[in-house]
Write a structure and sequence with these properties.
23% strand; alpha/beta; 37% helix; ten-stranded mixed beta sheet; Rossmann fold; binds S-adenosylmethionine
């Protein structure tokens, strides 16, 4: 979506992403699970941002390609002295059009930190279709997606942000209330009886619109696209049993699965 792509190409956002270096716990757990596969693999890191995941996932890759639709994010990667390795490559590219990449097939694809939630449902399906074609047989796909079952918490608790002024906190609170009311009017029962929804969740000053999905529906979406052996990981890094997926209220869930 255009407005999301523009938001991630702004100096302020890139500044924040340049400061991020650490892995999230589920990412650490998945690296441990897939250590062997990461060795000497061909890896595609989609929505690479400023390269937070590059040294962790890409360290042992034979060929690592980071793509992002935001040119400024890619510039942040290519300018980073730590990412000057023969095996590291970065390119401006929209995941919706990534079939144009000559570098396929890949052994491993990563779309970390909910990057896939920045496109709408039809583009999301195009991306899964693209991945199906670009990954080798039994190639590995890792990504995370926002959990629709976390929305109650997201809208309920206004987290007072001490780095912002009182006025700004009030502005934030009012915006959150507005979007909560809008959501409740559209979907009166809780938990919502819908499988996914695009909402303004407050990210990047309410400039972006983000896809939230029911975790069990994410499993179905992946199966429909021919991915198998699907596993899910919580924010704590623990594996979630698939039967318990719709009890989880984590803000996002990490998925690990394999191409048929
Ligand atoms: C939440 S950031 C995550 C950045 C990085 N992967 C990380 O984990 O730190 C999402 C990234 O996805 C990129 N992005 C959004 N839509 C995209 C698309 N359609 N194709 C490629 N990249 C996209 C954004 O520009 C942004 O850099």
């Amino acid at each position: 979506m255009r407005e999301n792509q523009a938001a991630y190409n702004s100096e302020a956002v890139i500044g924040q992403y340049r400061q991020m270096h650490d892995l999230q716990r589920p990412e650490r757990a998945i690296i441990k699970e897939t250590e062997e596969r990461l060795r000497a693999c061909r890896l595609l890191d989609i929505g690479v941002g400023a390269g937070r995941t590059t040294p962790h996932f890409g360290r042992d890759a034979a060929y690592y390609l980071g793509i992002d639709s935001a040119p400024q994010m890619i510039q942040a990667c290519t300018e980073n002295d730590h990412y000057q390795r023969d095996t590291y490559h970065f390119r401006v590219m929209d995941a919706v059009n990534m079939l144009e990449l000559d570098e396929a097939p890949f052994d491993y694809a990563l779309f970390s930190y909910n990057g896939i939630d920045l496109v709408d449902d039809s583009e999301r399906r195009i991306i899964f279709n693209n991945l199906k074609k670009m990954l080798k047989h039994d190639g590995c796909l890792v990504f995370s997606s926002h959990n629709i079952l976390s929305l109650n918490d997201l809208f309920c608790i206004h987290r007072y942000d001490t780095s912002m002024s009182l006025l700004r906190n009030i502005y934030w609170l009012l915006k959150e209330r507005y979007y909560r009311r809008l959501f409740e009017q559209q979907h009166p029962p809780w938990p919502p009886d819908i499988d996914f929804k695009l909402i303004h969740d407050g990210s990047i000053n309410f400039k972006t619109i983000t896809y939230y999905i029911r975790p069990s529906f994410q499993i179905r979406q992946l199966q429909e696209h021919g991915f198998h052996s699907i596993r899910a990981f919580s924010i704590s890094g623990a594996e979630i049993m698939l039967k318990d997926l719709d009890l989880i209220t984590d803000p996002w869930v990490y998925f690990l699965c394999f191409n048929a």
